[in-house]
UniProtKB/TrEMBL annotation:
Free-text cofactor note: Binds 1 heme b (iron(II)-protoporphyrin IX) group non-covalently per subunit.
Cofactor(s) required, per the database record: heme b
Domain Dyp-type peroxidase C-terminal stretches: 230-414
Similarity comment: Belongs to the DyP-type peroxidase family.
GO molecular function, one term: ferrochelatase activity
Segments for region (Disordered): 1-26
UniProt source species: Streptomyces phaeofaciens
Record keywords, A-Z: Heme, Iron, Lyase, Metal-binding, Oxidoreductase, Peroxidase, Signal
Domain Dyp-type peroxidase N-terminal: 75-219
Function: Involved in the recovery of exogenous heme iron. Extracts iron from heme while preserving the protoporphyrin ring intact.
Biased composition (Low complexity): 7-18
Identification of the protein by name: Deferrochelatase
E.C. code: 1.11.1.-
Amino acid sequence: MPDQSLPEARTPEAAATRPPAPEGLTRRRLLGTAGATGLVLGAAGAAAGYAAAPAQATPLSSIGAGEVMFHVKHQPGITQGLQARGHLVAFDLAAGAGRKEAAALLRRWSETARRLMAGEAAPHDDTDIARDAGPSSLTITFGFGNSFFARTGLEKERPVALDPLPDFSSDHLDKARSNGDLWVQIGADDALVAFHALRAIQKDAGSAAKVRWQMNGFNRTPGATAHPMTARNLMGQMDGTRNPKPAEADFDRRIFVPASGTKDPAWMANGSYAVVRRIRMLLDDWEKLSLTAQERVVGRRKADGAPLSGGDETTEMDLEKTDAAGDLVVPLNAHARITRPDQNGGAAMLRRPFSYHDGIDADGTPDAGLLFVCWQADPLRGFVTVQRKLDRGDALSKYIRHETSGLFAVPGGAARGEYVGQALLEG
């Protein structure tokens, strides 16, 4: 789990407001969203079941009113802050389904995502699960796996960056829950809104694709702390202090594929590559360690995320500082030392994970850990570079196990009137 994390604060892209549209009966209108929420009404055409509901006088809370735009330069769900609830799901195209069926599916999915992210009902057969809620910062993101291109006759358009990831020493991978033709990431600040989106996406797949695997995750709810702060993982550590920030001059170069001057195919312009790993935390073993031992494994103080060399969370780590005995304060195998970009040729990735808990095994061991999702313009320079370094001696590797893996090409955002992946499927 490289030492990078996304702050919970929303980015300017996430805060973008939908432009005015003709009045219609959307879920938000029926809930009486007031002008104080800063939202503008979405497009008309909600389902009749929504129209039948009486209007409410009380405005939505700030969490429910949060809205992320669908038609943006980069797909939603990449630069936005961590969301309270998430679902990751991979699909395989059905037997006999090819490029035509895939294009129709991505068109359906894109329209469903646009409507749900605007707080509207699904285009058809809405389940009413999210009837009483606002958009709740819902994001839906779509990607293509390596196998998708052979299934659709688009092998010549497959990016070199989608070559399979190498094997790592911490891998104990379940192939049935890895990879996939298509990948969808769903995130929201309300669990029912997120599940509503998951159900709609699954129903939209119809006979064109079937679920290969699906995983559920969570994060701290925005507003649960006195002020925005780096999230904690299930080990109790602040997870990812050094995540790259959108305000940094080289952020786009590191995270997104440029529109030109790259080895990537043209349809990947403004897109990114997502590495997805289900990382089980061996919590029983971890929790046997003393606080001091845990901090030396990570290289940071548990209380505030500050480096063991001193300062606060944002203080630059002093890798050469020694204690009275002459030993390095930050051990050579500390996770935070190994994952620093300046220790990996500048390699960087934008981490946007979810924690997960899938119950307790018969022996009492919790099946819990991290749904690791990271974004980068080049996975070989990003994830692979750092993970190879971790393979050579990360102190944390004793307490984690990588159980599933996937790599997906995530194209840029869809322009108005278009669907995600249109340049690939109709180019």
